[in-house]
Structure formats: structure tokens, C-alpha cells
Backbone:
């Protein structure tokens, strides 16, 4: 701590006080969070140093990852979110819908190469039967009982409840009984209703998002938490989003992690067609670093695990983010479709051995975890035996989003088409 204290002497007094409070485990306010975003010069780097120190105190020097597979079983969606390049209208030719047996086959394939989790999220197809999500979970658990189902965003839970004509509470109870283990805290974007009405009109409201999350937590279903930044939001909206998550965590203690998600702009409709004046191309390098560091500082004593997205940021920036407050590398993914369709160029799969190499390059120790952040294996030896997924040399066996939309047998059958 001596080195940090000496650096503080040359820091802006306001920033110095905020960071000293953070290191003393005091809660940082909205106003103070905004101040941290407005730094320059040496204070910029100081924020990174403080975030890294808080990370070290809170979770140590282990960098975790999970071996998982994304299964986005349909891209057909009734919503038209301005940031989403993945979804297709039900009348479009590139709509697909995977039958349950194909979802189970993909789960089995993932389990066979070492996955402990499948992450299941999709679009919201029209005329969907209310028990689709439950049936998927039941069939997966019947055939692969040991796999963890991390699935169905708050938006999907609300949609399933609506299609089933039951309450959110009753639907979540059914989902838990069917085998869902945790929920992704996605469909959050920025939890500011006026902004949501601009970038994703008709999407789940802030009030309903909170209701789904809190209900899940109170039923013993953990969730992640996320924030999409770098589009139209203000710094104040970002900070208030983080504070809202912090407040929910104080009440429920149900979040396992926080994941800042940089806006991928190139194929996103609201950027591609310039639907909003002032829309940005995602966060800059400095902005991404600050967002992760400030998240760590503001969520101290609240959410221990800060995950960065290698899909959105790439491998080298991911290494930097592990020195700016992050402690989790996320998942192997195997089939990443949503960021890729929006224009991300960092691939759909990362192998465990690549994660371990990058972690060791920054002098930290890699460890495989489960979805609840229980450590499954620490990798102290650089010459450890390769995992099953490491031995696969051809990614194409898992397919890709661009291939999937062209497979005729999975074409979405539009019930409204004569």
C-alpha cells in the first residue's frame, strides 16, 4: 500500500479522497462515480491500480473461467431492438428454430468435451407455446442430468409467463422444477426507462426486469448481472445502473457476477442506419478500462466477481482488463452468435489452454470454475494434460451462426404464412 499512498500525493484531491474511501471499503456514491469517469493523466492509471488492489483483496490472484456452450435455439423475435443484429422477423428467410432434440444433441456434445454448463438464450418467436422453455430444460436434464442450465433472460422469463398466462412467480417455480439452475442477467442494457424506450421500445421494462431478478433470487435461483455501454447512454446513467445492481444485491445477495458489455456497433441496426443522433461506436480503449475499474470499485463489498467479455474486447484487451479489476475470463462459449452477428471479429470459441496461457502471461493463476464460482481445478503446472476441448483442432465441427441460418431443416416454420 505504500506505493499507492505515495502516488496519491500527486493526485487530484477529490479523486484521491474517493479512492482512499474505496480502499477503506466505504461505499462510493453516484456523484463520486461520475467524478472517477472524468479523470485524466496519472489519475486515470491510479483508478486502475486501486481497482486491481481491491480485486486482489476481494478474490485474490486466481483468474477463473467456465467451460460452457451457448445454445441460441432461435433467432426469430417479435422485438426489434436497435442494438441486436442477431434476431430475425418471423417473415424473414433466415429465421431458424432448433427442435428440442437438436438442443439436447448440442448439450451432449458440449458435455462430452468437458462443458459443465450450457447457456440457453434465444429470440422471442410469435405464437410460442408457453411450455417450450420448460420442455427444453426437462429434456436436457433427463438426458444430461449433470449439466448446469444457465438459461433464459428476464425478457424470456416474462415472455414465457405471458404465453403461459401465469404470474412471473409461478413461471419461475415451474422453470426451477423443470431444471433451470441459474438465469443470465441479460436484457438489462441500461436500466433507465427513457433510454430503453429509445434503443429497444417494447422490451422488458426496468420494473419488470427487477421483478424477475428479485423473484428468482428469493427462490434460490442465482443470476448474473450485466450492463451494455458505449451507445447512447450518459455516464450518469451507467453509474446509476451499477448502483441499482448494488442495491438489489444488498437486498437479495443473488448476483454471482457483473459483466460490462461493450456495444458492438458495426451491424447493429441503430448504428448501421444511424437511427439516433450521437450514437457511438462502443467504448474506446480508455472507456472500457475505466468502466471495468469503476465497476470493481463501486461494487466492492457487493458483487465479488467481475467478468470481462473476450468476445467483445479480444484477447489482448482482456489481459489488460484482468489488471483493471476483472477476475473472470468468462466461458469458452463454443457457439457465440449474438456478438458475432453484430460484427465482433474475435471468434465463437476460445479453448481452455488459450485462456490459461493468457492468464499466465500476466503472472496470475488460471482455474476452472463452475457457474456458482466453485473452483473445480487450479492449474499450477504449465505442463498439465490438455482438456478434451483443447484437443479439438477444427472449430467447424460445432458450426456457426452464418451456417445455421442456411440449414433448411431448421428453418422457422411461420404459422402465419399461408
Residues:
Amino acid at each position: 500500500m505504500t506505493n499507492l499512498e505515495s502516488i496519491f500525493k500527486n493526485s487530484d484531491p477529490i479523486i484521491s479522497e474517493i479512492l482512499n474511501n474505496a480502499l477503506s471499503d466505504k461505499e462510493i456514491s453516484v456523484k463520486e462515480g461520475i467524478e472517477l469517469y472524468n479523470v485524466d493523466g496519472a489519475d486515470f492509471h491510479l483508478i486502475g491500480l486501486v481497482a486491481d488492489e481491491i480485486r486482489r483483496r476481494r478474490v485474490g490472484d486466481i483468474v477463473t473461467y467456465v467451460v460452457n456452450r451457448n445454445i441460441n435455439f432461435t433467432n426469430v423475435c417479435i422485438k426489434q431492438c436497435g442494438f441486436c443484429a442477431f434476431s430475425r422477423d418471423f417473415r424473414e428467410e433466415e429465421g431458424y428454430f432448433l427442435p428440442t432434440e437438436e438442443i439436447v444433441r448440442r448439450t451432449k456434445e458440449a458435455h462430452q468435451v468437458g462443458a459443465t454448463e450450457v447457456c440457453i438464450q434465444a429470440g422471442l418467436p410469435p405464437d410460442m407455446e408457453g411450455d417450450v422453455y420448460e420442455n427444453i430444460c426437462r429434456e436436457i436434464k433427463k438426458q444430461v442430468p449433470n449439466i448446469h442450465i444457465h438459461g433464459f433472460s428476464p425478457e424470456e422469463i416474462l415472455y414465457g409467463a405471458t404465453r403461459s398466462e401465469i404470474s412471473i412467480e409461478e413461471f419461475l417455480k415451474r422453470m426451477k422444477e423443470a431444471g433451470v439452475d441459474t438465469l443470465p442477467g441479460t436484457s438489462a442494457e441500461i436500466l433507465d426507462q427513457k433510454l430503453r424506450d429509445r434503443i429497444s421500445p417494447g422490451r422488458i421494462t426496468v420494473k419488470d426486469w427487477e421483478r424477475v431478478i428479485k423473484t428468482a433470487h428469493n427462490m434460490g435461483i442465482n443470476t448474473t448481472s450485466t450492463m451494455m455501454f458505449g451507445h447512447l447512454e450518459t455516464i450518469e446513467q451507467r453509474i446509476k445502473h451499477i448502483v441499482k445492481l448494488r442495491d438489489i444485491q444488498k437486498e437479495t445477495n443473488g448476483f454471482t457476477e457483473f459483466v460490462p458489455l461493450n456495444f458492438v456497433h458495426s451491424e447493429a441496426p441503430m448504428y448501421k442506419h444511424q437511427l439516433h443522433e450521437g450514437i457511438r461506436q462502443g467504448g474506446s480503449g480508455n472507456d472500457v478500462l475505466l468502466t471495468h475499474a469503476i465497476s470493481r470499485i463501486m461494487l466492492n463489498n457487493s458483487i465479488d466477481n467481475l467478468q470481462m467479455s473476450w468476445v467483445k474486447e479480444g484477447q489482448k484487451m482482456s489481459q489488460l482488463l484482468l489488471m483493471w479489476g476483472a477476475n473472470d475470463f468468462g466461458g469458452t462459449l463454443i457457439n457465440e452468435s449474438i456478438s458475432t452477428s453484430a460484427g465482433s471479429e474475435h471468434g465463437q470459441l476460445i479453448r481452455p489452454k488459450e485462456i490459461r496461457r493468457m492468464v499466465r502471461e500476466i503472472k496470475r493463476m488460471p482455474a476452472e470454475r463452475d457457474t456458482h464460482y466453485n473452483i473445480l481445478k487450479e492449474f499450477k503446472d504449465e505442463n498439465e494434460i490438455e482438456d478434451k476441448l483443447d484437443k479439438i483442432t477444427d472449430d467447424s465441427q460445432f458450426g456457426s451462426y452464418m451456417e445455421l441460418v442456411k440449414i433448411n431443416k431448421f428453418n422457422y416454420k411461420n404459422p402465419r404464412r399461408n
About this structure: The mean pLDDT is 90. The radius of gyration is 21 Å. The chain has one domain: 48-410.
